[in-house]
Amino acid sequence: MADAIVSTVLGQLSSIIGQQIQQEVKLVVGVDKEVEKLKSNLQAIKAVLVDAKERQVNEETVQLWLEQLKHASYDIEDVLDEWNYATLKMQIKGVEYANVPKKKVCFFFPFSCFSLKQVRLRQVVLRHDIAMKIKEVTENLDDIAK
């Protein structure tokens, strides 16, 4: 009987872990699409802020909402700047590593193969970090919209 309970619990845990891994992979793989959505949202927010400034809204609740929107736009700009900087940095490092013949270098200098794997790992970690920040900013925007 204990075996059946343990088996059931392990099955449920593996299912939950599998779902979480799947969500994380979707975040990392879909980060380019999310960055584009974020850029679009930023343009829309800026348009709203310009329009509100021209209308000189006097309602306190609307001013508070606009202030939250302005801070959210700063957060979006920070995330996009970080993404652009990291992407450019990775492209430069990629060019450095692309000019090195892999097999010969790996044969003579095994640490260089490790360096190539580190670059790829950094790319995945970067994409994950940006995806998490985009998720956070998007949740904040959703809260503001509510």
Largest beta-sheet details = none
What fraction of the residues are assigned to beta strands by DSSP? under 5%
Quick one: overall form? flat
What is the total number of structural domains? 1
Number of continuous helical runs: 5
Radius of gyration: 23 Å
Task: Point out poorly predicted stretches.
Answer: 97-101, 107-112
Oligomer classification: single chain
The chain-level mean pLDDT equals: 76
Look at the helices and sheets and give the structural class. mainly alpha
Please write the string of helix (H) and strand (E) elements.
HHHHH
Number of strands: 0
The helix content is over 70%
What distance separates the N and C termini?
49 Å
What do these coordinates show?
By secondary structure, the protein is mostly helical. The protein has one domain. It is built from 5 helices and no strands. It has helices at residues 2-29, 31-55, 60-98, 102-108, 110-145. α1 (2-29) packs across α5 (110-145). Mean pLDDT is 76; it is low at 97-101 and 107-112.
Features:
92% helix; mainly alpha; flat; 146 residues; 5 helices
